[in-house]
Design goal:
By secondary structure, this protein is mainly beta. It has one helix and ten strands, in the order βββαβββββββ.
């Protein structure tokens, strides 16, 4: 086991993400299953990795990430407009609903219905937390470069 979090570490953590208003956006404590972070694999922002470096098992830390350090800003290019006819098979779209859309190559992308107006439906493909400052509360449970992903929820 590694003594502290390093650039290539696998880290088992409990975390809570809170929005500007203090509401909880996500927490591993809700299901009691910690998350596995692998530093250096590109799945975490550079700012998040930097905040974790040097922590030891048992350490807790609270920090805030600006939108561009967390999930990015809101990109107008990821807001698209569809015809109501495109939703015939899916049923009546409701504002706030998250729907899966087929992307290039057959992959699926989640989109949030932002507006339904006449024959036009506005869908936002930005990450749901894009544009938000995120307060991150983390507790390091274990640090191990060979930690197996089946022990935790991998985070992407």
């Amino acid at each position: 086991m590694t003594e502290c979090v390093q650039r290539e570490s696998a880290v088992l953590v409990h975390f809570t993400l809170k929005l500007e208003d203090g509401s909880t956006a996500e927490s591993t404590r809700a299901n009691g299953k910690p998350a596995l972070f692998r530093l250096g694999d590109g799945s975490l922002s550079a700012a998040l990795e930097q905040a974790l470096l040097g922590l030891k098992a048992g350490d807790t830390k609270q920090f805030t990430l600006a939108p561009e350090e967390a999930f990015g800003g809101v990109s107008p290019d990821l807001i698209q407009y569809f015809s109501r006819r495109d939703f015939i098979d899916a049923g009546e779209p409701e504002v706030g609903a998250i729907m899966l859309f087929s992307g290039m190559g057959g992959s699926e992308m989640p989109g949030v219905i932002r507006e339904v107006s006449g024959d036009s439906i506005t869908v936002d493909f930005n990450h749901p937390l894009a544009g938000h400052r995120i307060q991150f509360d983390v507790e390091v449970l274990e640090i191990d470069p060979v930690l197996e992903a089946n022990d935790a929820n991998p985070v992407s």
